Amino acid sequence: SHCSHIPLRSDYGYKVSLFSHLHQYSRKAPLTQQISIPATVIHPSIVRLGLQYSQGIVAGSNARSVALLHAFKQVIQDYSTPPNEELPRDLVNKLKPYISFLNQCRPLSASMGNAIKYIKKEISNIPSQCKEEEAKKKLLLCIDNYVNEKITLAAKAISKCAIDKISDGDVILVYGCSSLVNHILCEAFEKQRKFRVIVVDSRPRLEGREALRRLVKRGIRCTYVLISAVSYILPEVSKVFLGAHALLANGYVMSRVGTSQIALVAKAYNVPVLVCCETYKFCERVQTDSFVSNELDDPDDLIVTREGKTQLADWQSVKSLGLLNLVYDVTPPDFVDLVITELGMIPCTSVPVVLRVKNVDQ
Amino acid sequence: MELQAVLMAAGGGSRMMDLTYNTPKPLLPVGNKPLIWYPLNLLERAGFEEVMVITTKEVQKALSTEQRLKLDVKMKLDVVCIPEEADMGTADALRHIQQKIKTDILVVSCDLITDVALHEVVDLFRAHNATLSMLMSKVHEFTETVPGQKGKKKTGEQRDFVGVDSTGKRLLFMANEADLEDGLVIRKSIMRKHPKMHIKTGLLDAHLYCLKRSVVDFLVDNKSISSLRGELVPYLVRKQFTKALGSQRDDEHTDQNLKRKDANASLEILSSSKDEALLQLACERSCWNDHRGDMSEAYHGGQLRCYAHIMEDGTCYRVNTLAAYVEANRVAPKLFEEPPVHPSAVISERSLVGGDSIIGAFCQIADKTSIKRSTIGTSTTVKEKVKVTNSIIMNGITIEEGCNIQGSVICNNAVIGRGADLKYCLVGSGQRIEAEAERTNEVIVGSDQLMEI
Fold this sequence. Notes:
Chain A: Keywords: Cytoplasm, Initiation factor, Protein biosynthesis. Chain A has 362 residues and is an alpha/beta fold.
């Protein structure tokens, strides 16, 4: 089959010059405008996933990876080898336009990138004499194992380590909504640790509200502040737990924008900062700033509407105004005291060691 | 395959019998194209390659034989006939083709004329894994005069009450005035989950629905549901908020009522059977919620979700009344790019055809005629000194010399005698208007049609 044509999503609005090399899309112009209904070139599960990514319904590094693997399972189940083709090569080729589509809906996360690498490797390693049914079963099992090992069991192991670091009477500060940190706190609460949580939140995503809901539902005592109040609240804090989107090879932590600020202020107050991150999010990229590689979200999200009135409704017509909605930032390893992974508790600078060890294993 | 398209073209046009007693509704000419062309064109432009058309034998015959219909539709049409006497509702029709339905479906009515971007409706269906996603539109005021209308416009239509949440997309409530005898009752469970509800009354249901395949299976088990719009859709909207599976009460009753099919249970089982552990895990780990302010997870944990896309601008008409038919003829030509005058029409140079008129194939327009804001159908002859304004002239009609036709609808194969003066009249199929007749605001149909009450 010919190389499928994936439509290109066009950029929206004025881009601040420092970030003009990145894409900036509008949520009101989804990529589905340009593909057929019903979707034929792209598998329906992938179209659904792309929409859920671009609308933020599936958000968070772990959620995105798991949803991606789920969609890949559907693709593999519906796949049938065309005549004169071999499954290992053809299936990998079939996945390429899907990945390109997803990347345009929302740039892939580091965890998704690693999951894709793993899947592609597993598919390529299918022996050519393997029958299609068997191959598909094997691949589905691989995916389930990957999720189980790298996400579910890793979370368990990290929880165990992290709970040792939580003592009674602790005041723990968390930022935004990290699925792993929430999981750790809930487990610690189950294990009868006495602590309270301060949830720090920031616009425009206000993900902290969801974290707050999950923690309060369990019965954990929480305080909620916006990031502008972090230096006010920090004297009360005994530990800071942060989640990560990715851990870079030079020890920098890539996480939701605002994390580096929290780490900086915590450092100034000598409060220990612990980053919790599964090893499958470790990335071979090296970055020292938040400009070179980042994600620009829909600038219209920054607009506040109160009682139907919006001051920034015509922001595009003001030539000297640019709206910047950054998604990630990088935190230098000097501000991070410990990284908790399923391999144990390591300093930030040990990340390249882990990566090297992982590569040797494979 | 993601979606199968189902076009419902067996409906009778019961609210415009004067037009449809001789011409089935799907074949009524609008802007010189059969009404059924419009939804077919909508589906084709979106990217569909085949459509299942549920219709009567008469329409099927016309679709396959009549050259004049000029469907120029490239999609593959799988025409399924249902007997007219069966009096099937739209849900009955879906039940009838259950074997052919392999995926989720997009149901369209043959009388829908719209330029909606279909992805707006389908994306809601996809992104939220919805059971139902539908299209609605703000009702446009009809500006054209309707022929044969005696006195003020009937307020007849009973209003539809549609409740949506603060995003304007999630359907919370749907009922017709006719079913609300004691007033509008909203369950507390809905208010607890969605404290802010906008109730709208000025909306038109475009009769375009995306439905999960499990709904078709559900219809097979619940034969009492006959109409999509009248029964199934309000039922699905209500069922979003009824008690979920596995509650205490259900367990107590399973032994006693093994035979009784718990409708709610079967719908939820069918629609959630594909949700595996991975999907569940992804939902748990995602930091998204569709609402805030309470302790519930996204969608309040409900498996059944109904959404609506409400069009604010753009064209959306359902041609199911005479007034809508007249209005559609004015608006529809803007939806397709074809020359207003068909190349095969013979038009005298000494005639005046306005830029906003459409002339169909093989027409003959004689000298000194004036045609303004009108549609002339195929193979119609207009003789000298005729004045046609604001009117819809269908196919195969002869208008003799000196006639004056204003604001009227003339149906297929009618003959208008010389010098006749018709204002705001509806002339039925095959009727002959005598010469020098002067009629205003009348519906002129055959005596055998007058039996229809």
